[in-house]
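Supplementary Note 3. Input sequence used for the single-chain structure prediction.
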Amino acid sequence: MLPRLFGTLLLAFTLGGCAEPPYTNVDNAGLKALLAQGVPLYDIRRPEEWRQTQVVAGSRTLTYVDASGRANPEFLPRFTAEVGKNDPVILICRTGNRTDALARELMAMGYTQVYNVRHGITRWIGEGNPIVKN
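The predicted structure, written as discrete structure tokens, is reproduced below.
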């Protein structure tokens, strides 16, 4: 039931991609400011991606979908246990596409302060920002 609901939500959010997102996009300066405030950063990529590019220091690593696009069944239970609906949270992936879908899903679930790192870890690294081994 949960995977079907997840797939339906993902499709609906993808089809509504032209609308203004219900979450807040941030650039690298915004990411740095939020991290300085202690807002948690979730890197939702897969383990092989973390090994390939490394991660932003302090990232919490939690895979959202596998390489085939299937939802990680552990993602939502762990995320909802760790992040309250009114707590600020930052999401990062490789380029911002997965975090866009997830941010929309979280907002539909009642989360109120979701930040998406626009252009993801790719832009973070491209602008010379520090990364650490996961």
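The two ends are 33 Å apart (CA to CA). Helices lie at 2-15, 28-36, 47-53, 75-82, 97-108, 120-126.
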